[in-house]
């Protein structure tokens, strides 16, 4: 079970890491989440972004460009 939990956690990014990956600040990240452009969810008290949601967001940027 610990291995499964580690695999799941490896696919979830805390918002601080998402900011680093997207090179945006906290305000812009929360704007993206609030507008629905970047999907996120809460795990306990933490808000996280899944690897799939991050990839979809980046793909949408490529398509729009």
TrEMBL record:
Domain (Helix-turn-helix): residue spans on this chain: 15-60
One Pfam family per UniProt: HTH_17
Domain of life: Bacteria
Gene Ontology molecular function terms on file: DNA binding
NCBIfam families recorded: excise
Protein name: Excision nuclease
């Amino acid at each position: 079970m610990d291995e499964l939990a580690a695999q799941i956690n490896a696919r979830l990014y805390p918002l601080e890491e998402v900011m680093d990956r997207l090179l945006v600040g906290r305000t812009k990240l929360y704007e993206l989440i609030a507008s629905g452009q970047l999907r996120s969810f809460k795990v306990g008290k933490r808000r996280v972004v899944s690897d799939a949601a991050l990839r979809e967001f980046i793909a949408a940027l490529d398509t729009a460009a």
